[in-house]
Amino acid sequence: MRNDAGSADEWQSLRLHNRLYAQAAKLARIGAWECDLADEHLTWTDGVYDLFGLPLGGPLSRRTIVDLYTERSRRELELVRADALRRGHGFVLESEIRTWRGQTRWIRITADIASLAGRPVRLFGLKQDITDEREEWTRLRHRAEHDALTGLANRGRFDAHCRAMASDARTRGSVAALVLIDLDDFKPINDRLGHAAGDECLRQAALRLRRVFRDAVLVARIGGDEFAVLLRAPLGPTRIAQMLARASAALCQPILWNDARLAVGASIGATILGPARNAAEAFAEADAALYAAKAAGRNAVRLHGAGEPPPLATESDQRGRAGRQAG
Length: 327
What we know:
It contains twelve helices and twelve strands. It has 327 residues and is α+β, with helices and mostly antiparallel strands. Strand 1 and strand 2 (41-44) form a beta hairpin.
């Protein structure tokens, strides 16, 4: 009788522990998994089925499951897995998957290796849904790297990219030119009409820069009324000069605010980059070009070593030229 009672108590305790584990695993969106390396047979708990959106207890094929990973994550998984088996140690990896139902999720894979006579025989571990964690991290990173007023990249992100350019020739080679922009007559508007008017000027300037430099590597607000642009390579001097002239024309258009037309222009300085250029020297050259533009007067543009870019032809200029050619 006591043996039967003891077995019943043990069974009841085991059921309780299994229920507690299942509840905790569901709360943490986590599941356990195992892969037999002899035949790649997979064993999953319910939590992993839920992660991948598959029917509970359904047949599992590693090839089919791996196809649910995005291409980049699949490539990374296979490299990390092969390296772990070769070295005989576990790994932790964050991967992006598309569930069987088409949802995008991020999972954290924690893996260890069971060996027999020095040979790996099983991979086992945990898989956890970290989609919310990744989204929160992305939001925090966006806040840390972007200007709250304009939505452009901030000075920190601009400086980080410049540091990457200084240490990586491939990053450096992807940038054709560094452009520095300083708004003209911004301070009088800010002082006379208040910060609300000044903020609207900055927002509108940011929108116009985004439109003109929509293919740029980076458009950033790096100071109060100062902006910086890294133009994507390849671009020649003529094309760069045309883009700078277009930016100047866009920025000098009046800004409507509370039934008032605010006149704001911009001084622009730039320098051409290349794979061998030093980022600090390039910034000094662009800054010198900006200084020369400001010294030349309102709405001036200077490209280091090239003087002032030719102005863009307006629509009336183009119509007049077409008429003269026809005559």
